[in-house]
Predict the structure.
Amino acid sequence: MRGGVTGGQMGLMRGAQTMPAPRKYPLELRDRAVLMYRAAEPKPVIRRMAEELGVHHEALRNWIRQAEAGAGERGDILTTAEREELAALRKESAQLKRANEVLRRPRLFSRPSSTRPGPGDRARRCAPAPGGRARTPGTFHPLLHLLPLAPGREGTM
């Protein structure tokens, strides 16, 4: 398979439990960069500060925005705690949807619990018994008399 994705890689891409991508920048660098920006007066130009720190300017901009949201200074972005809660709720919702789908499926194939005959009951009633002979409704299988009865149930047939 040239230049393509192998079957093992496809399993990882389908949403199976995958490990998160490794971080490009250490968390310590991120925290220090945000502290430097927030402590500086006047605020430095993010692009220049990012060049001095050796990080991408958009990464630094996102770190600063997230820190401001976590501090309650921004209302347009979710805080880190809100993001984690949202991710957990989305995961739970997906699990519940899968469970509901599983619970819906057997209903299509299970026999109705009603005692009233339905549209498919006639076919079951007229089906031939093993051995080729058709049984009439209310009769027992011809070989049933060979099975031992449970104690105390001698006269029930």
Residues 113 and 128 are 23 Å apart (CA to CA). Confidence is low (pLDDT under 50) at residues 7-12. The chain is about 50% helix and 0% strand.
